[in-house]
Amino acid sequence: MVKGANVGLTALSENVGSVVVGLGWSSATGEGDADVSVLLLDGDGKVRSDDDFCFYNNPVAGNGSVQLLGKTPTADGSEDRISFDLDAVPQEVDTVVVAASRYGGSRFGELDDLRLTLADGAGDGLVRFAVEEADEVSAVIFGELYRRSGEWKFRAVGQGYASGLAGLATDYGVDIDDDAAEEEAEEGPEPEQEQEHAEAEPPQPAAPEVRVPAQATAARADEAPPAPAPDPVTPPKPARRPRTAKKKVTLPRTVRKSLADNESWRSARLFPVSALKSDRERETRATSVVLSVMAQVPEFGRRLTAGFGAPAGRMETYTEVTLPHGESPRRPDGVIRVERAGKLWTALVETKTNGNALKPDQVQAYMDIAARRGYEAVITLSNDVALEGSPLVDVRIDGRRKHKVALWHLSWAEVVHQAQMLIRHEGVGNAAHAWLLQELLHYLQHENSGCHGFQNMGAAWVPVRRGIDDETLCQGDARALEVIENWERLVRQVCLRLGGELGQKVLPVQRTRRGSDPRTRRTELADHLCEQGRLNAEIRIEGTPGVLAITADLRTGKLRTSIEIPSAGPGYPLRVKRLIRRMAEAPADLHIETLVDGPSPGPRGTLERLRPEPADIVPKGGAQITGFRLSLFKGMGNGRGAAETGFIRSVDGAVDRFHAQVVAHMEAPARRSRSEEPAG
Questions:
Q1: Which of 59, 108, 230, 398 is most buried by its number of CB atoms within 10 A?
Q2: Which pLDDT tens digit goes with each residue over 39-78?
Q3: Is the torsion defined by CA of 102, 108, 111, 116 positive or negative?
Q4: How many CB atoms lie within 10 A of CB 272?
Q5: pTM of the complete model
Q6: Which residue(s) pair with 435 in the sheet?
């Protein structure tokens, strides 16, 4: 589509009761990011209340009809997805605005390939709109969904705001709270910050922070006049705005002291795992456990199905249902049904645990059954992680059938991630729901459940390692491509696990040319593996400067985790001292390398050696410092699996150690904290 164009959704597909909108972008460095927001507007073009503003701290709005699904890595960067249940959007809402904003002085001109995509409930792409001329703006309206004569339409907008989120929100009646700077001034800087300012330069005044208040209401012309100002002699402390959203329940990480006599006493669990003996028992139990919790905890069920086109409604789940299929009836592992306004959305579920692969003939049979019975989707659930452009199961689609069935995949790692995000960070409706999710999480993470996510680097792992050792692995070898695909699966799972623990966005960074095909990119990486013997990956952790790089050198058997942090300007000796001081709790074997402008490498050394003499890391001859690289090394596991000595376990351990002992002590870039954002 072109800017300003509009189209009716029913003219594009019959399955537009639920749609998914994706906002995407890419950057040459892989470091660009933006926050997605959605505003629900009434007939006057204004928000009605705080429930009509949907952003990362309020991911569900409009009675569940709008839900932010988070970021998904793509071949060109990342894509933020938003689920819209258009049949459930409140009748008072005429227009839904889809926007994104950048922070910390960043502009959209620093990003490439700004785009919006819209897919129907079956996952078929209907609309693509490329946003252009957004160089100097920090907020952009990508598009609008609006009603006309009972039909939903889409308009490609592409309007930018140089004033950022504040200007965009004000236009739609959102009240902007800029009292954050006053609160920070009252609290004062931390002692260490005061010392650093005294050594370097005078402190700069804090800029007002744009914050969406908990009570976001449309400005009305007939509002009462403001109350008289208080006595100027004793000005009161600014009152915090009321929290209108219902308080959600999260569970603390620290476990309360046990009342058991000794450690041999085992807590009673809602979902026991001691009786699991076979793969079939694991599949049956895991399916029943997950589906039952989905039906009982609405937030959890909605999080897992919104991206599959399911509406926001009453959910019921079933297991071991028998459905006719020729001469031999089929029994899918589960069925999910969602009812909304008298309409049913149905998905068949096929589950695998313990690393077992999905069987194409089973999935094909369920796709055929779903098509004949008018069901909307088939969902596969296994330890494997799906990759873009590389389906786990190839199925035939009968183009003669009018009814379309979508095939979706969930990994057990994604299920665990969503449960962690809800009970540790975002919260659920009540304590009973939080306890149910905690029991589910305990079950999925137990060694007997078979739901540990991706846990095998594949049959090609050992031959590829041997081929690299004896230099017989040639470019174009299919086994190298298999290792690259499994490496990408492992990195994505690392991101899910770390993101769930931190409550932050953690995504793999893919530095590729715009529009490159994911299969072509993996083929190029496989050729590099054959030539260099190394697996490389980068992940971006929200709130962290730079990207965390992971390198597995199959020639030396070493894992390297590192991060590059940019230099913050002049005053090298002082800044080097600060860097060493911030790393006070880091391991003594942390490698620190100075990055300089020019072909020659900068000085380097271990933290143990640099602590007494920080100036040793300053380059001689006045070379321009561009940044520092911090690295840790450890031995790489040999086995292809997730055992204690396996490669997968060693990668997990290396990333966890580096984040906890190095990254967590680094200064984050200027950005509003989620904890400071109001509840929506």
A1: 108
A2: 999 999 988 887 788 887 778 888 888 988 888 877 666 7
A3: positive
A4: 13
A5: 0.79
A6: none
